[in-house]
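ugh ok fine here u go
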Amino acid sequence: MESFVLNAISGVTHGFGILHEPILTFARTHWHARPMKTQVHGVNIAIATENRQQVGPADGWYTEKRNILLTLVNADCYPVLFSRKDGTAIAALHVGWRGAFNGIIYNLKEIINNQGDDLANWVAGIGPGAMPCCYEVSQELIDAFSDRYPINPESLNPQPRKLNLLAVITHQLRDIGITCFDSLSLCTICSVDINAQGETHPIFHSYRRDGNKEVQVSAIMML
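structure:
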């Protein structure tokens, strides 16, 4: 699965994995050379400078180097992939409720600004994640988001105890100055395919649905 917005960027390839193809073909080609991190639902963003780089705990990547595969693993949290409009820099963020609440997207803004760049030069594609149809959390968490971010309450919390994390992410993207982005708007928990026999099968791995640690990979690279 791909983002239409990112597909328009020359020299950048990307994709969001699914249950039956968790690692996309282009990513498998570069898999063993990819830089490595350990996702911890935090806000640290590592700057990738070379293949096979080991960065430790991190939930995001930024690079201006070509032929470096940036990867994320996700099962209900959102993968958000970024590219400069001219294809000269890319980034990838793993955004769950902790990362969104604590501002990993704002940390990317700081990194980009520190490069002397403007977020208006960037676009983003949001992959699949737990949608408010299925994403039940505590009312205390919803209240905490409401107190921290000025998001319309009906959008943030469309049903009792359901958190619209996608609305938080899109609010934050606009807040940092990225206005050109798109979203698959697919729920990792309930999205299904229907085969010729009328049987339904999940499209994505989901920790909340299955309780296991199976994941799909999202990836982006400058060629």
